[in-house]
Amino acid sequence: METWTVKQLLEWTTDFFKKKGIEMPRLDAEILLSAAMKIKRIELYTHFETEPTETQRSIFREFVKRHGMGEPVAYLVGFKEFYSIPFKVDPNVLIPRPETELLVLETLDILKTFSERSFPIVCDVGTGSGAIAIALAKNWPKSVKQTIIVAIDISLEALKIAESNAVLNGVDNQIEFRCSDLLADVIETFDVIVCNLPYISQSEYEILPDHIKNFEPQQALLAGSQGTEIIERFSAQLSPKLKSGGHVLLECSPMIAQSVAAFFADWNFVKIIKDNAGCQRVVLATKK
């Protein structure tokens, strides 16, 4: 009987994923095999000549089959790293993207402008898995006293995931999770509001890769025919919920960044921030 070592499984699976057109075949193979063997990915390199058990190979084969059919790795293994923090994910929440880390960085820079005696109140709208709120809580500037972050989502299922992620990462005492349609049920006023709302247009949604369109929640992606509809509705609710001099930061598609910035044309300050690829990614606006 032929033996299948870790090295052989990784090589075969990487080649299989390449033929399927998967973007990161080797990385995906390593993540799935380490999950099947219940070891850290780095440990695969010290187990190259190890032969996984039949149970481990069976789990791995199922992972490979499903990923080959388009199911995202993050949903298969049940977690995704974001801002060097582990997050539980399932099909009720969008998989956190690396480009959203820019939104966290820019928000942390805003928080650094508050004095050590300040208790800025922050709101994360459309929290999903809780990635933004939790990353902010874990990296809160030392010069600013910590306060409660209000994290909002319209989906109760998403909020359950977000709450479990807050517990997992030890910041559940810093975040208050609430169900609301954007800011409709919020009575506080905030110093900073940050959000990654749906911004995909209908035409863009129709041509999304199958591994996104067929598996991730449509509600977290599709905004409407133009892609700006939900952000426009959010911007109409915003002014009474933001303190004078307060800041709002929104992630958006480069295709609609100018349109989003136009919603804040009469504000005190508006800036479009580019990501590492040079794409317009975050709109920052400051209220008068």
Give an overview in words.
This protein is α/β, with parallel strands linked by helices. It folds into 2 domains: 6-69; 91-286, Rossmann fold (3-Layer(aba) Sandwich), CATH 3.40.50.150. Helices cover 36% and strands 19% of the residues. It has 11 helices and 11 strands. The chain has helices spanning 6-19, 25-37, 54-68, 73-77, 101-111, 131-138, 156-168, 202-206, 210-213, 229-238, 257-262, and strands at residues 79-82, 85-88, 122-125, 149-153, 175-179, 190-195, 200-201, 222-224, 242-251, 269-274, 280-286. The strands form 3 sheets. It has a 7-stranded mixed beta sheet. A two-stranded antiparallel sheet has the order 1-2. Strand 4 (149-153), helix 7 and strand 5 form a beta-alpha-beta unit. Helix 1 (6-19) packs across helix 2 (25-37) and helix 2 packs antiparallel against helix 3. It is globular and about 70 Å long.
